[in-house]
Amino acid sequence: MIPAPFDYAAPATLDEALSLLASRSDDAKILAGGHSLLPAMKLRLAQPALLVDIGRIKDLAYVREDGGQIRIGARTTHYEIESSDLLKKVCPLLPECAGTIGDVQVRNCGTIGGSLAHADPAGDFPAAVLALDAELVAVSKRGERTIKVSDFFVDMLTTALAPDEILREIRVAAAPARTGQAYRKVHQPASGFAVVGVAVSLTLGAAGACDSAAVALTGVAAKPYRARGVEQLLVGKTLDAQAIADAAAHADEGVDANSDLYASAEYRRHLARVHTRRAIAAALSRAA
Ligand SMILES: Cc1cc2nc3c(=O)[nH]c(=O)nc-3n(C[C@H](O)[C@H](O)[C@H](O)COP(=O)(O)OP(=O)(O)OC[C@H]3O[C@@H](n4cnc5c(N)ncnc54)[C@H](O)[C@@H]3O)c2cc1C
């Protein structure tokens, strides 16, 4: 499996990378960790004429807090997110999710920006950032724009990013008090990708009832989605086992479920309901 011939550039600055993309946006592709793009090139599913390697742009990899908002550089690796003390404290959903991705080698090279830009229907981070209502900052020679995560995932392997744009930063809010978060996943045994992955973030009010709930699923459909029917049934309730089960039963509502050799659509729907129930229960146990 040998890729088609391509040119390679490794700019040292973001500006240089943006200039290259602006001049070759019809046939160039950004290379980050390479753990999705290179396999696609070897299978000749992607044949870019130019790879713009952003691996040497140091100021694209960071996790920091700024006025209650967490900012994550797009080139931050899965391992850096999994092991970030700041994220473990203020947004534990992301490290938990990162720790389920692939294996150690994949987590050392793969980046959150690459995962989101690739938009694999079985990718893990897309569910987590949807549940966190993230904002995604994209930059090009034309300027910078902020994309709400609800507008970012367009279809399977397709996002709102334009060919000349680099995803620069992911922004999420620090979790308020009495918030519990959890990620639950059924691994595809060969690849490690999510057959079904469920990200939950819920916040309890002073009396112990659920004040707000965000539930997002990946692996089930062509693109990740928020399970609004589940969320509506959680909010305002005291979450006992029955209330959680009743809500989780709506996890696959209105969804056109994927089917493949490993999991039929019916089985995926079943997994979606079961693991949504478990993810909500896990998040609740961390919220008190
Ligand atoms: C064996 C194996 C197992 C895996 N298991 C899992 C798993 O369990 N869960 C999971 O979620 N993923 C899994 N992955 C995928 C892995 O997480 C990838 O690293 C990730 O999907 C892509 O990140 P990357 O940095 O490698 O991006 P690349 O492969 O370099 O790029 C992917 C795509 O994103 C674009 N891109 C990259 N960075 C940017 C940016 N900053 N702005 C705009 N476009 C950009 C590229 O042009 C390309 O189109 C696995 C991969 C392998 C090889």
Number of strands: 14
Over all CA atoms, what is the radius of gyration?
Answer: 19 Å
CATH architecture of the largest domain: 2-Layer Sandwich
Tell me the strand order in the biggest sheet: 4-5-10-6-7
Approximate strand percentage: 25-35%
SSE order and pairing:
Elements lengths: L6 E3 L4 H10 L4 E4 L5 H6 L7 E4 L9 E4 L2 E5 L4 H5 L2 H6 L2 H6 L5 H6 L2 H7 L6 H7 L3 E6 L2 E6 H4 E3 L2 E2 L6 E8 L5 E9 L6 E11 L5 E9 L6 E2 L1 H7 L6 H8 L16 H21 L3
Parallel strand pairs: 1-3, 2-3
Antiparallel strand pairs: 4-5, 5-10, 6-7, 6-10, 8-9, 11-12, 12-13, 13-14
Helix pairs in contact: 10-11, 11-12
The chain binds flavin-adenine dinucleotide.
Flavin-adenine dinucleotide binds next to strand 2, helix 2, helix 6, helix 7 and strand 10.
Walk me through what this model shows.
This protein is of the alpha+beta class and 288 residues long. It has 3 domains: 47 residues, 2-Layer Sandwich (Uridine Diphospho-n-acetylenolpyruvylglucosamine Reductase, domain 2), CATH 3.30.43; 116 residues, Uridine Diphospho-n-acetylenolpyruvylglucosamine Reductase, domain 3 (2-Layer Sandwich), CATH 3.30.465.10; 104 residues, CO dehydrogenase flavoprotein, C-terminal domain (Enolase-like, domain 1). 32% of the residues lie in helices and 26% in strands. It is built from 12 helices and 14 strands. Strands 4-5-10-6-7 form a 5-stranded antiparallel beta sheet. Strand 4 and strand 5 form a beta hairpin. Helix 10 packs antiparallel against helix 11 and helix 11 runs antiparallel to helix 12. The longest helix is centred in the C-terminal third of the chain and has 21 residues. 46% of the residues are buried. The site of flavin-adenine dinucleotide (FAD) has 32 residues, from strand 2, helix 2, helix 6, helix 7 and strand 10.
